[in-house]
């Protein structure tokens, strides 16, 4: 089942060039730039008429929602919010009949997400599922939805489900916006990016030997911070979660826009830092963050675009990833962090497939 791999986590990370294709198969037509999700057909008009969209999920699935929030809002021009399933219920958020609530869950069985679903159904909202498990409770209980078709995910730490959830959510936004002529150029750009994605992921996975070395360097670290902004906000949170889950290193995702509002106090020569810095519209802000970090003797490892020749990287270690469309770049940039968390676990003598205290599916609230 694991083939040439020692653990499911690394096998599933390496599944991604294929699993992302399986998520898009029969749904994205790369010839006429159309996206058709069979599972949404009957409710498309209702979703477009709704007044807002609220995402609800836990853990990595929550991060996939955070990751697509801004492209979803840009394409659909609807108010979007993203809520942890547990806080959704804690806060008893007001939900109305003209709301659409999207529940994202790999297993389709997470108790908190299921409770949030029941809460929204009782209030008359249209409930949409994005699940990996056909026949799961969330798949059955939602009014309609999309199966992400990533294939079974065994590893407790989610990898390929994250990328496939991200793509499924992006496909929903593409389909919802295909009646908006002003979005044609943007939609075309994204669909072309989706076409190249599998190759981009394959190239990114070639960083494996370099990442193994980085893991050797960092294996005794007690803390690690992952910094980025904009489209990479979710990548920071998800990268830090992966590291916590399987390495037990205290890792924190920090949004670069917040650096000077507190986290800058953590920066010193001995603090391990990963800075995610793609060539997108936030690049000059990221340059500023990098200067603030190096001015305080921080020496970040930078996840940078393959083509980026910035002299700011001269004294720094870089992990070079293929550049894609800004809104899809998180799919590429999460991969080095998945591999790093895996190799850190191995270097620290931890079995990444069975991290202490965690379960693959949390079916109690
Ligand atoms: C469906 C078939 C797929 C087939 C394809 C051919 C299933 C499970 N899928 O895929 O095998 O190749 O047609 O056209 O038989 N749903 C929910 N909640 C969720 C996820 C899905 O209610 O969380 C519902 C959908 O609204 C839909 C059904 O489940 O009614 C199947 O969804 P999905 O597998 O995504 O549909 P297709 O991609 O059309
Ligand atoms: C658990 C898993 O905490 O549940 C995580 O260990 C996962 O990997 C989270 O992200 C949510 O699970 P699901 O199945 O609802 O996506
Ligand atoms: Na259903």
TrEMBL record:
Presence of the UniProt keyword Ligase in the record: no
Pathway assigned to this chain's UniProt record: Nucleotide-sugar biosynthesis; UDP-N-acetyl-alpha-D-glucosamine biosynthesis; alpha-D-glucosamine 6-phosphate from D-fructose 6-phosphate: step 1/1
Domain SIS: 40-182, 214-355
EC assignment: 2.6.1.16
Enzyme class: transferase
Coiled-coil parts of chain: none
Gene (name only): GFA1_1
GO MF annotation list: glutamine-fructose-6-phosphate transaminase (isomerizing) activity
Whole-protein residues included: 333 to 697 of 697
Keywords: Aminotransferase, Glutamine amidotransferase, Repeat, Transferase
Function: Involved in amino sugar synthesis (formation of chitin, supplies the amino sugars of asparagine-linked oligosaccharides of glycoproteins).
Record's protein name: glutamine--fructose-6-phosphate transaminase (isomerizing)
Catalysed transformations (reactions): D-fructose 6-phosphate + L-glutamine = D-glucosamine 6-phosphate + L-glutamate
Superkingdom per UniProt: Eukaryota
């Amino acid at each position: 089942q694991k083939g040439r791999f020692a653990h499911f986590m690394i096998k599933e990370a390496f599944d991604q060039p294929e699993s992302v294709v399986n998520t898009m198969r029969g749904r994205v037509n790369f010839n006429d730039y159309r996206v058709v999700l069979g599972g949404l057909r009957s409710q498309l008009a209702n979703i477009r008429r709704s007044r807002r969209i609220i995402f609800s999920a836990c853990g990595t699935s929550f991060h996939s929602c955070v990751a697509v929030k801004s492209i979803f809002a840009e394409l659909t021009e609807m108010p979007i919010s993203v809520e942890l399933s547990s806080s959704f219920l804690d806060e008893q958020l007001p939900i109305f009949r003209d709301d659409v609530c999207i529940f994202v869950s790999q297993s389709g069985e997470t108790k908190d997400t299921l409770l949030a679903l029941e809460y929204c159904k009782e209030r008359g909202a249209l409930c949409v599922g994005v699940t990996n498990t056909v026949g799961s409770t969330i798949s059955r209980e939602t009014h309609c939805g999309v199966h992400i078709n990533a294939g079974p995910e065994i590893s407790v730490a989610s990898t390929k489900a994250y990328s496939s959830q991200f793509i499924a959510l992006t496909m929903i936004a593409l389909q919802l916006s295909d009646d908006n002529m002003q979005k044609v150029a943007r939609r075309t750009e994204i669909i072309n990016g989706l076409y190249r994605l599998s190759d981009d992921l394959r190239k990114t996975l070639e960083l494996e030997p370099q990442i193994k070395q980085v893991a050797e360097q960092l294996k005794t670290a007690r803390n690690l911070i992952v910094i980025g902004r904009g489209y990479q906000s979710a990548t920071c949170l998800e990268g830090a979660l992966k590291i916590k889950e399987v390495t037990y290193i205290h890792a924190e995702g920090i949004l670069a826009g917040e650096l000077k509002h507190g986290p800058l106090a953590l920066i010193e020569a001995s603090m391990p830092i990963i800075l995610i810095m793609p060539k997108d519209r936030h690049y000059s802000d990221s340059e500023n963050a990098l200067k603030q970090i190096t001015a305080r003797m921080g020496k970040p490892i930078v996840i940078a675009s393959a083509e980026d020749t910035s002299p700011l990287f001269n004294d720094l270690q870089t992990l070079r990833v293929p550049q894609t469309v800004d809104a899809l770049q998180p799919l590429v940039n999460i991969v080095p962090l998945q591999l790093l968390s895996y190799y850190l676990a191995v270097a620290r003598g931890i079995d990444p497939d069975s991290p202490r205290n965690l379960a693959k599916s949390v079916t109690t609230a």
